[in-house]
């Protein structure tokens, strides 16, 4: 009986939050429903007249969301919210259970994850976004790699690319951990997914949709560059020195440095038990930095990175413990409701969240340097 108390409390709390607040929101979920309805009628998915709420994902994912377009909007929102809460629980639990040689208890790490990443989880649920679905697929790939199931790991990464294209960042990691078998399956899934919409649109129509996707992503990058919640490297430099070719170049250089750190971490995997976990967490953490439209709530993908940093915190040297704690604090608690309008705006103008994520990348690299993870 006691084992049912906490699930019941969580369900009741989630239902209350949905009725009071989230039911009136979920604006991004409406984008998926609209795209799904268009896909079923073979209509163009990518339309400039949709403004800020343009569909920016591959055509195949619009068909995945088709069942929600057949349900009335309110019912569809309620079902998606319930699924998202379940995905959130799965993401956190899998992130904790996948950590090799845990020092802290599972419950402790779950609570730290909720506290430190709660801001991003809440924003995701409020928007009705799909990053939780992506996180579960990719964390599933991590767990599959850990039990030596390369085909499953590859399939899950391939599916993740259709939920959010930036999952492509995991392909080098997949090759390293699951070999050519895993990479081959991922690429096969991508190839199939890119061609399947041709069954509805025809070959030329499907090609037109893919071109439309690319055009939409590139055309909407500049208007979103200086939005407060955008934490990409491109935004960071644009906020610091103004939008310019120099800012774009510095963003590219910084991105290459970040990827270089990730590559270096992978070269230091010898004698590390399940080395793929830290590498996976690092890559997931930097996704919103590298994406030109890297919204802050995408940081929820970095849950595994936060789990390993918290778990190994006591084993860091004192300076690194302090650096990690400060970066986690400002990343997690730079919140409008806590700081107020003026201070929050000032913190976002200096890209404090982006800087903290870069610091945490260095902290993860330090863990690998000391062979703690």
Explain how this protein is built.
With 373 residues, the protein is mostly helical. Helix content is 72%, strand content 0%. The protein has 18 helices and no strands. The model has no long low-confidence stretch (mean pLDDT 92).
Question: What structural keywords apply?
Answer:
373 residues; mainly alpha; 72% helix; globular
The averaged pLDDT comes out at 92
Order of helices and strands: HHHHHHHHHHHHHHHHHH
Q: What is the rounded Rg?
A: 20 Å
Secondary structure class reads: mainly alpha
SSE diagram, text form:
Elements: H1 5-20, H2 27-40, H3 59-64, H4 66-69, H5 73-97, H6 106-127, H7 131-146, H8 150-163, H9 171-195, H10 198-219, H11 233-241, H12 245-267, H13 276-285, H14 287-290, H15 303-311, H16 318-333, H17 336-349, H18 352-369
Helix pairs in contact: 5-6, 5-7, 5-15, 6-15, 6-16, 7-8, 8-9, 11-12, 12-13, 12-18, 13-15, 16-18
């Amino acid at each position: 009986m006691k084992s049912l108390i906490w699930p019941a409390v969580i369900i009741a709390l989630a239902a209350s939050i949905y009725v009071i607040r989230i039911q009136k929101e979920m604006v991004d979920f409406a984008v998926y429903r609209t795209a799904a309805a268009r896909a079923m009628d073979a209509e163009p998915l990518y339309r400039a007249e949709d403004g800020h709420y343009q569909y920016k994902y591959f055509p195949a994912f619009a068909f995945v969301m088709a069942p929600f377009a057949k349900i009335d909007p309110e019912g569809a929102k309620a079902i998606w919210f319930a699924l998202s809460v379940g995905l959130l629980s799965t993401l956190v639990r899998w992130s904790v259970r996948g950590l090799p040689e845990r020092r802290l208890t599972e419950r402790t790490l779950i609570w730290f994850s909720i506290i430190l990443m709660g801001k991003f989880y809440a924003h995701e649920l409020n928007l009705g976004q799909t990053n939780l679905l992506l996180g579960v697929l990719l964390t599933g790939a991590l767990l599959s790699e850990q039990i030596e199931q390369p085909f499953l790991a590859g399939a899950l990464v391939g599916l993740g690319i259709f939920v959010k294209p930036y999952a492509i960042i995991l392909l080098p990691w997949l090759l390293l951990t699951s070999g050519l078998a895993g990479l081959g399956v991922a690429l096969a899934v991508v190839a199939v997914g890119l061609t399947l919409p041709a069954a509805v649109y025809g070959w030329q129509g499907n090609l037109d949709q893919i071109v439309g996707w690319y055009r939409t992503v590139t055309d909407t990058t500049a208007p979103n560059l200086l939005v407060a919640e955008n934490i990409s490297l491109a935004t960071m430099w644009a906020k610091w020195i103004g939008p310019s070719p120099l800012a774009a170049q510095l963003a590219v250089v910084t991105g290459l440095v970040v990827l270089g750190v990730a590559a270096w971490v992978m070269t230091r995997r010898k004698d590390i038990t399940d080395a793929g976990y830290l590498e996976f967490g690092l890559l997931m953490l930097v996704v919103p930095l590298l994406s030109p439209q890297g919204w802050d709530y995408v940081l929820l993908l970095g849950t595994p990175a936060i789990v390993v940093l918290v778990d190994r915190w006591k084993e860091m040297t004192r300076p690194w413990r302090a650096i990690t704690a400060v970066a986690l604090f400002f990343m997690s608690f730079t919140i409008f409701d806590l700081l107020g309008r003026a201070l929050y705006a000032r913190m976002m103008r200096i890209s404090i969240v982006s800087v903290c994520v870069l610091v945490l990348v260095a902290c993860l690299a330090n863990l690998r340097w000391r062979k703690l993870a």
